[in-house]
């Protein structure tokens, strides 16, 4: 089993932590890029939530609780 397969299994088993991690990763990218790719980052976050769970309970879908840049 590859490392990616193991990560995918871990993500699917813990939706709340997954949602928080997705939000944190998106915030990190937005911070590093100055929010230049915010729309694309939000789109990827939504797709990851759909695929791995996490819903919007992890801290905000569509960048609701993110500071504007």
Quick rundown:
The protein has 69 residues and is an all-alpha fold. Helix content is 64%, strand content 0%.
**Percent range for helical residues?**
55-70%
- Low-pLDDT stretches are 57-69
Overall shape: it is elongated
Rg measurement, Å: 12 Å
Q: Give the count of helical stretches.
A: 3
Question: Main β-sheet: number of strands, strand sense, barrel status?
Answer: none
Q: Can you tag this structure with a few keywords?
A:
single chain; 69 residues; elongated
What do you see in this structure?
This protein is mostly helical. About 65% of the residues lie in helices and about 0% in strands. The chain has helices at about 5-10, 15-35, 40-50. Helix 2 (about 15-35) runs antiparallel to helix 3 (about 40-50). The longest helix has 19 residues, at about 15-35. It is elongated, with a radius of gyration of 12 Å. The termini are far apart. The model is unreliable at about 55-69 (pLDDT under 50). It holds the Pfam family MT0933_antitox. InterPro entries: Antitoxin_Rv0909/MT0933. It comes from Streptomyces physcomitrii.
């Amino acid at each position: 089993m590859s490392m990616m397969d193991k990560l995918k299994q871990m993500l699917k088993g813990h939706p709340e932590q997954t949602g928080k991690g997705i939000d944190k990763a998106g915030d990190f990218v937005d911070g590093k890029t100055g929010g230049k790719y915010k729309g694309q980052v939000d789109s990827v976050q939504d797709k990851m939530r759909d695929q791995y769970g996490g819903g919007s309970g992890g801290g905000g879908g569509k960048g609701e609780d993110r500071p504007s840049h």
